[in-house]
Amino acid sequence: MATRLFHISDVHFGVEDREALTVFERAVAEERPDAVVCTGDLTQRAKHSEYAAAAKWFDGLGVPVVLDPGNHDMPYYNLWERFTDPYKRYRTLRRNVGSDLRSDDVVLVPLKTTVRAQTRFPWSDGVVTEAALSQTLDHLSALKSDPRTIIVTAHHPLLGPEGHEKNPTIGGTQAFAKLAQAGVQAVISGHIHTPIDELRSVDGHAMRMIGVGTLSIRLRHGAPPSYRVLTCEAGGIIETELREIRKADG
Asked: For residue 53, what is the domain's CATH number?
């Protein structure tokens, strides 16, 4: 049997869309996916109250939950904590409600695309550091002969829109090429609040970029709240279904 994943991103607890969350909760309860994967921006300002709301909601889904941090998940008001231990609150959430996916069909490998500070402003766009990329590539090297489909999870898309010369994710182009060369079939991400599903190529190495919208009220480019169903089988097979949440759905 194939493995079914429900992919969400950018829930932004603090400005979450309660109607969209209810629609998603209902789908999880009825269909029981093998896991829910959330690629970051779990909170709006990384407040303790927002993390508490996120923990309660994810725990209530009743299925395994795989989490990544986003740029909104580092303290916004407590700069001391942001610079000394930016992922402390995220780690607590992941420890309490997160899990690792166990599947004969697909393996998920995280890539961190967030940093506590940047030399540009605002600090919202992605950065793939050499250390982060090396850690992911080390994980991938252990999967060299693994027959399962390999998906990398990240908050930020590694490439910008096609036709744009400037990539908003620093280090993303190099990371894309190296991941594709390492045998990754797809990178799933969020951040832009707009769904994407594209086969892209860098230096002759092709890989699929799959992204999903938001489950918050922070809509962009006319895209409604959405989530995506990924049906995965070994050998690089990934089927996707984008589910947009309209007001009538609630």
From this structure: 3.60.21.10
Q: What is the DSSP letter of 8?
A: E
Beta carbons of 7 and 210 less than 8 angstroms apart: yes
Total number of domains constituting the chain: 1
Q: Are 36 and 61 in contact (CB under 8 A)?
A: yes
Please give the single-letter amino acid code of residue 117.
A
Handedness of CA 126, 8, 67, 17 (dihedral sign): positive
| pLDDT tens by residue, 109-150 | 999 999 999 999 889 999 999 999 999 999 999 999 999 999
Domain limits for position 128: 3-249
Instruction: Note whether 16 and 236 are within 8 A (CB).
Output: no
Give 180-239 pLDDT, tens digit per residue: 999 999 999 999 999 999 999 999 999 999 999 999 999 999 999 999 999 999 999 999
Residue position matching structure tokens 């799933």: 188
Q: How many Cβ atoms from other residues are within 10 Å of residue 188's Cβ?
A: 27
Q: Provide the 8-state DSSP code for 64.
A: -
Q: How far apart are CA 156 and CA 173, in angstroms?
A: 12
